[in-house]
Amino acid sequence: MQILDVDLGERSYPILIGEQLLDRGELLAPHIRGKQVAIVTNETVAPLYLERLMQSLGGYSVTPVVLPDGEAWKNWETLQLIFDGLLSARHDRKTTIIALGGGVIGDMAGFAAASYQRGVDFIQIPTTLLSQVDSSVGGKTGINHPLGKNMIGAFYQPQLVLIDTSTLATLPARELSAGLAEVIKYGLICDEPFLGWLEDNIDRLRELDQVALTEAIRRSCAAKAAVVGADERESGVRATLNLGHTFGHAIETHQGYGVWLHGEAVAAGTVMALEMSRRLGWISAAERDRGVRLLARAGLPVVPPTDMTPEDFMQHMAVDKKVLDGQLRLVLLKQLGEAVVTGDFPREVLDATLRVDYDLLMQQSRA
Amino acid sequence: MQILDVDLGERSYPILIGEQLLDRGELLAPHIRGKQVAIVTNETVAPLYLERLMQSLGGYSVTPVVLPDGEAWKNWETLQLIFDGLLSARHDRKTTIIALGGGVIGDMAGFAAASYQRGVDFIQIPTTLLSQVDSSVGGKTGINHPLGKNMIGAFYQPQLVLIDTSTLATLPARELSAGLAEVIKYGLICDEPFLGWLEDNIDRLRELDQVALTEAIRRSCAAKAAVVGADERESGVRATLNLGHTFGHAIETHQGYGVWLHGEAVAAGTVMALEMSRRLGWISAAERDRGVRLLARAGLPVVPPTDMTPEDFMQHMAVDKKVLDGQLRLVLLKQLGEAVVTGDFPREVLDATLRVDYDLLMQQSRA
């Protein structure tokens, strides 16, 4: 088992990473203050892991809350089911909410923890690669609004993140790839050597090699923990974690939540950010193609939806959280391994980026 | 104009108290970061003060959000109207949400500010006596749930509280009395001399004497600011501010939100807390009667609803936020001017308190 510490002063917490941690109640106990625990999970994860986790929590009064599965349910109505469960079972302010599942479960359980009786304790047990390397670290919680993704939420830190790498055995291949989009992102924005490591190990990761997965998760969490530790409330460098996300959110919103997986939209969005960085003269075509090829080898889409026009993109991007005082800011690459957040680019370069034939670009990147 | 500072480290903020402050945009400007402002108010307050406030904010892009009036609307559906307004007008993360109205508006606008894009700036302009002396100070925000009051929310501090005492001229007498319940509370829990001052000035307050009102608001805010400053997240002494609230919330929940005003329920609940403190031998019958008489002179109900049984009270109090590990804790008086939060009382004394004939008690207190 590996332990990482996320340093946020009085809101610091550990991340435990290892195999079969789900059965080890002694890892959870030091982080549970009261006698009540609510486990928030979904219909897909519950049959696989809920019983095991409840066995690990034998000494507690446990309320399971099983939600429908999917980003399409990341809304107020579903969040309300968590509050209904907590209130029906009379959970008090010392209760602990455990998120058992992927990013959607973590985001909703975390926002429920932030809001229930104005804040109760929270533990993350992410069971997808995406949530293990991304959404379980950094304290972002929330739900979607019909007019925008993640528009309602809170910054709220967990007491503990427990990553059981064995749970990836039951993850569909498509979701594993979606998680790899975020793993590759860390290489692109702040760790060029890790990018090289990924080029050597991408096939092993897709084959669920446990050693390679553990290493990829550890390096990803460490990268994110370092960035978040430096900038908890996303006033500066933290925003670089959103490489590909502004374009990606536009794709998700336009297609309807849940049609593209988050990581898939981020992958296509990352290709657009790479292309825009090349057009600004910050990276070479060869460097752009390294990123595109690695994303493609991870089993990810590298072409945005062909039915999306530049106008569609602009409309959705105008409500993105990185818009400040009406100016659109994007995460772009100064070089491989170094991202910046900037609104300082000619509008024409963005327009041109939105008009690129990405099918052709993908084919050329393979040449 | 008087200025009070609420000392919460990096979340400190000033409270400005005075006449006709609504027209003084220069008091607001230093606390607004961006160019966008949303004013959240309700159908009762908007015709009275919205236009004047918008004039004070001439240099900003202002989005008014006018909600229906009343505690019955303090729910998710109404909160959603704020998010709809913010997103439709494309408010970004540097926007400022201003609450213009009473406690319900402050609680909802505050929770919207805490949750919109995971947190934006917030200014309180409370227009009722209750919200001026209570809910605008301390950072509590939230909405009700069908199973409990204020169950969903956040601790979230404003940038500024602006109290324009002139707005009390349009407040119905019944709501003025409801505010006085909280003013009297400060005397009971932590300021015995203030209790004496109130006994001398209660009639002037009900007649809207501006000098008396300003003094009562200043002393109330100072008392609350001191308590909140010592215990922002209600782990200890802050809970004494809830004198009468556990019984009072039970009354509000049982009667249906909005039937009794919050301050009215708190007044009757305070009488119950006084009576229970007397039964524990902590205060005398004469001291209890001083409290009961002052509440009655303020125009407040001092008798709980006659259709509520002891069982009704116990059922509603079991989900109160002051329940920890199944033990009910109450705010009681060790003496006039000194409150404690305790679960250390014989259950029979609580049962007896719930069975008291409060009509009779009220009549005797006048003797």
From TrEMBL, chains A, B:
* Residue ranges occupied by any 3-dehydroquinate synthase N-terminal domain in the UniProt entry: 65-177
Q: Which cofactor does it need?
A: NAD(+); Co(2+); Zn(2+)
Which HAMAP family does the record match to this protein? Answer: DHQ_synthase
Q: Which residues form the 3-dehydroquinate synthase C-terminal domain?
A: 179-323
Q: What does this protein do?
A: Catalyzes the conversion of 3-deoxy-D-arabino-heptulosonate 7-phosphate (DAHP) to dehydroquinate (DHQ).
Per UniProt, Zn(2+) binds at 182, 245, 262
**What's in the keyword line of the UniProt record?**
Amino-acid biosynthesis, Aromatic amino acid biosynthesis, Cobalt, Cytoplasm, Lyase, Metal-binding, NAD, Nucleotide-binding, Zinc
Positions annotated to bind NAD(+)? 69-74, 103-107, 127-128, 140, 149, 167-170
Originating organism: Pseudomonas saudiphocaensis
Record's catalysed reaction(s): 7-phospho-2-dehydro-3-deoxy-D-arabino-heptonate = 3-dehydroquinate + phosphate
Q: What is this protein called?
A: 3-dehydroquinate synthase
Please indicate if the UniProt record lists Transferase as a keyword: no
Q: Which family does it belong to?
A: Belongs to the sugar phosphate cyclases superfamily. Dehydroquinate synthase family.
UniProt pathway: Metabolic intermediate biosynthesis; chorismate biosynthesis; chorismate from D-erythrose 4-phosphate and phosphoenolpyruvate: step 2/7
For biological process, the GO terms are: amino acid biosynthetic process; aromatic amino acid family biosynthetic process; chorismate biosynthetic process
Tell me the GO molecular function terms. 3-dehydroquinate synthase activity; metal ion binding; nucleotide binding
- InterPro entries for this protein: Dehydroquinate_synthase, DHQ_synth_AroB, DHQ_synth_fam, DHQS/DOIS_N, DHQS_C
Q: How is the cofactor bound?
A: Binds 1 divalent metal cation per subunit. Can use either Co(2+) or Zn(2+).
Q: What is its main location?
A: cytoplasm
UniProt-listed Enzyme Commission number(s):
4.2.3.4
Check the record and name the Pfam families matching this protein.
DHQ_synthase, DHQS_C
One GO CC term on file: cytoplasm
Spell out the subcellular localization from the entry: Cytoplasm
